[in-house]
């Protein structure tokens, strides 16, 4: 595998050989992890372990080149939780950034395969590279449930700290969370609620589950997987490597344009998604941020809309 920008590259002596039980999970099939993704994730984890940055016995990885939907129609498994001491490997689903379609640039992604990637704030795109999990924040999203039994819904968000091209993860509000949201519909009076506004109203809406779909650039998991991952890293940070980094994307795009075989060039991209997207594109923040800022400046100044009263 050729070296590309964005991947840790310790010497062979520094990286223990992949144990046999974990080698059994290597591959490009459903529920497997591509060798380059595991190599990058292990290298990052072992580096941070040696530095004393993390002590967690487990580490995380994601392959954003894979489709979000498996052949049987279920969410595609492309996020990995690996605990080598326990000989535990689990593959779960995760969303990829949906991007935007603006007048000056279309960097939107379809639901199943990601073509566009970026580290630009406001791009709503996935940025591959090294991360370390940080603190969690739990916030109120609205009331849900039947009219006679409305309850508050809270969602926990796991922050990431990035390095290099992903160093602006906090600026971008990039992290991990359950793939659920509350789509507000109306408001009702509940002055006893700690979430009531100055007039005593709280928002109410419908709970939407988008497991395996797109996100604003964060990693999004099913509620079950979220519980496991959040419990794993609470007060015990670990590493996350998201593939592909910008160097991978540029190298694959160049190979596709030249008509060269990826395998012969020592490159990797999921075959199913590559056939769908034809060639990936990385948008550096220096390129995309001015376009996003120009779009934001062009938006009309509208007065905040008020939710109707629930019937």
UniProtKB/TrEMBL annotation:
<protein>
    <submittedName>
        <fullName>Murein L,D-transpeptidase catalytic domain family protein</fullName>
    </submittedName>
</protein>
């Amino acid at each position: 595998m050729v070296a590309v920008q964005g991947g840790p590259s310790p010497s062979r002596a520094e990286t223990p050989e992949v144990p046999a039980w974990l080698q059994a999970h290597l591959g490009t099939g459903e529920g497997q992890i591509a060798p380059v993704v595991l190599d990058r994730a292990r290298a990052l984890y072992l580096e941070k372990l040696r530095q004393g940055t993390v002590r967690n016995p487990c580490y995380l990885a994601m392959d954003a080149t894979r489709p979000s939907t498996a052949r049987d129609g279920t969410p595609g498994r492309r996020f990995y939780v690996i605990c080598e001491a326990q000989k535990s490997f689990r593959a779960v689903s995760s969303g990829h950034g949906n991007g935007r379609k603006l007048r000056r640039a279309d960097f939107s992604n379809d639901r199943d395969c990601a073509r566009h990637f970026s580290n630009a704030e406001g791009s709503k795109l996935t940025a591959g590279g090294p991360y370390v999990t940080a603190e969690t924040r739990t916030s109120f999203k609205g009331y849900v449930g039947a009219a006679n039994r409305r309850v508050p819904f809270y969602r926990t968000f796991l922050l990431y700290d990035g390095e290099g091209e992903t160093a602006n993860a906090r600026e971008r509000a990039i992290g991990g969370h359950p793939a659920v949201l509350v789509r507000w519909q109306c408001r009702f009076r509940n002055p006893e609620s700690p979430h009531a506004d100055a007039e005593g109203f709280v928002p109410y809406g419908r709970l939407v589950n988008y497991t395996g779909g797109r996100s604003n650039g964060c990693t999004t998991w099913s509620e079950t997987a979220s519980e496991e991952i959040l419990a794993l890293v609470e007060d015990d940070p670990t590493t996350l490597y998201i593939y592909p980094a910008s160097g991978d994307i540029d190298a694959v795009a160049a190979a596709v344009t030249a008509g060269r075989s990826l395998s012969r060039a020592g490159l990797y991209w999921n075959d199913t998604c590559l056939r769908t997207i034809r060639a990936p594109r990385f948008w550096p923040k220096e390129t995309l941020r001015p376009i996003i800022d120009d779009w934001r400046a062009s938006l009309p100044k509208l007065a905040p809309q008020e939710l109707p009263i629930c019937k």
